[in-house]
Each structure stands twice: as structure tokens, then as C-alpha cells.
């Protein structure tokens, strides 16, 4: 499928797929969306300084990179697992402008390293920040009581409805520890109902630029 680099409304880049008319991040602002959904309403909602995070859709590495920057600021210890079935290419990585847009030149080599790391191997990106990239389909995830936080950043239900089903959210529920949190940019009614049906307590929150709402889900009990 053809992919092209585009500039979103906040000046940051993302990858656009014309065939689907779908982007890896919001066209209203890739960095703004990542901070709003996954940092402010995900990472910052945990009191612990030691977190295990699962990202569904490692993609451009933006969510991981921002988490790395924030973890360094806050002295957090992070075990980060990014799941991606179709990794982006090196020429695409070189066109992404997250380092400059985030004014994170001290971390520029870290962004490159994350993408160059071997798959399916835990590696240290920075002090107290460990990354494991898993080249894996979401349907094949079988972790149990492993993660404190899930960044659910799969392609939208309009183009990949099979990634937003009860079956998938049951896997997400099982993979979280007790009181673990899942956050996603989506607020579709069918997505919310699928989450609730597998046991999540789900709250609608104000969405990032261009979206009215997003979802925040908590594993409140084993099911």
C-alpha cells in the first residue's frame, strides 16, 4: 500500500495512506494528539514511578519517543513494549520531524536507535527506559497481567474494524494488571460497548484537537 509523509496541523509529520485515506496520527496534529491521549490521559494518570507500557501500533515511534522524553523529565522507570505487524521503512524514518518539533535534539540519536533496534529483543534506550519491539499481529497477543498501561493506537475502525472487537479488547483486558489503564483516541459507541462487555470501566474524556471525545478504560476486576 502506498504511503506518503504529510505535515499535520501542528507542524509535525505523519504517514498518510491514500488508498485508505487514513493517517498514522491525527491530521489535526500528530504531536498534540500523542500528548493529549497517551501522556496527559495515560502516563500522567499513574502514580507509580515504575511502569510497564504496551503500545498497540508502534508505527512511527512517536508515542514511544514522547514517553521517553517525559520519563527522563520525571525520573520514571519504564518497560515499553511496542507491537507492530508492518514496520515503517528507514527512508520514512528519516523524513519524520519529531526531534526538531519537540526541540529534543539531546534525544535525536535515541529516536534513530529505537527504530534500528532488533525486533523481539529487550534493549535499553536510555537510563531506566527499556524497549522491546514485537513484530506481531494484535490478534496473536497473549500476555497476562503484564502491563500497567496500554496505548491503543491501532488504525481506525473505519478501515480495520477487526482491531476494535470484543475479542481484541478481551486480550487487552487480560494483558493488564489489576487497575491497569487503556487509553485510545477512539470514542465510537461500538468500541466503548466492546470494552465494557469484557469488563472494563470506561470513561469518555475530551478528545485531542479535531476530536470531541476519547476513551479511558480501567481494569477494575478479573473476569
Give a written overview of the molecule.
With 223 residues, the chain is of the alpha/beta class. It has a single domain, classed as Rossmann fold, CATH 3.40.50. It is 27% helix and 29% strand. The chain contains 7 helices and 11 strands. The chain has helices at residues 30-40, 62-74, 90-93, 98-101, 108-116, 166-175, 189-197; strands at 4-7, 13-17, 22-23, 50-56, 77-83, 123-126, 129-134, 147-152, 176-184, 200-206, 213-219. An 8-stranded mixed β-sheet has the order 6-7-5-4-8-9-11-10, sandwiched between helices. The chain has a 3-stranded antiparallel β-sheet with strand order 1-2-3, with no helix packed on it. Strand 8 (147-152), helix 6 (166-175) and strand 9 form a beta-alpha-beta unit. Helix 1 crosses helix 2 and helix 6 crosses helix 7. The longest helix is centred in the N-terminal third of the chain and has 13 residues, at 62-74. The protein is globular, with a radius of gyration of 16 Å. The termini are far apart. The mean pLDDT is 96.
Order of helices and strands: EEEHEHEHHHEEEHEHEE
- The count of strands amounts to 11
CATH class: Alpha Beta
Tell me roughly what share of residues is in helical segments. Answer: 25-40%
What is the overall shape? Answer: globular
Query: Measured on Cα atoms, how large is the radius of gyration?
Result: 16 Å
> What structural class should be given to the helix and strand makeup?
alpha/beta
Oligomer state equals single chain
The total tally of domains equals 1
Amino acid at each position: 500500500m502506498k504511503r506518503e509523509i504529510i505535515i499535520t496541523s501542528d507542524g509535525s509529520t505523519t504517514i498518510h495512506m491514500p488508498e485508505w485515506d487514513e493517517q498514522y496520527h491525527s491530521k489535526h496534529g500528530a504531536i498534540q494528539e500523542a500528548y493529549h491521549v497517551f501522556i496527559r490521559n495515560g502516563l500522567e494518570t499513574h502514580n507509580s514511578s515504575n511502569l510497564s507500557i504496551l503500545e498497540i501500533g508502534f508505527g512511527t515511534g512517536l508515542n514511544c519517543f514522547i514517553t521517553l522524553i517525559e520519563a527522563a523529565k520525571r525520573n520514571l522507570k519504564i518497560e515499553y513494549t511496542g507491537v507492530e505487524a508492518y514496520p515503517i521503512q528507514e527512508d520514512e524514518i528519516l523524513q519524520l520531524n519529531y526531534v526538531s518539533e519537540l526541540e529534543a535534539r539531546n534525544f535525536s540519536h535515541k529516536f534513530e536507535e529505537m527504530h534500528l533496534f532488533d525486533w523481539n529483543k529487550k534493549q535499553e534506550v536510555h537510563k531506566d527506559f527499556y524497549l522491546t519491539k514485537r513484530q506481531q499481529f494484535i490478534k496473536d497477543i497473549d500476555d497476562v497481567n503484564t502491563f500497567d498501561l496500554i496505548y491503543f493506537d491501532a488504525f481506525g475502525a473505519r478501515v480495520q474494524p477487526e482491531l476494535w472487537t470484543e475479542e481484541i479488547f478481551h486480550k487487552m483486558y487480560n494483558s493488564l494488571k489489576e487497575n491497569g489503564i487503556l487509553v485510545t483516541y477512539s470514542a465510537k459507541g461500538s468500541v466503548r460497548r466492546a470494552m465494557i462487555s469484557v469488563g472494563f470501566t470506561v470513561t469518555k474524556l475530551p478528545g485531542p484537537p479535531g476530536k470531541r471525545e476519547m476513551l479511558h478504560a480501567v481494569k477494575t476486576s478479573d473476569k
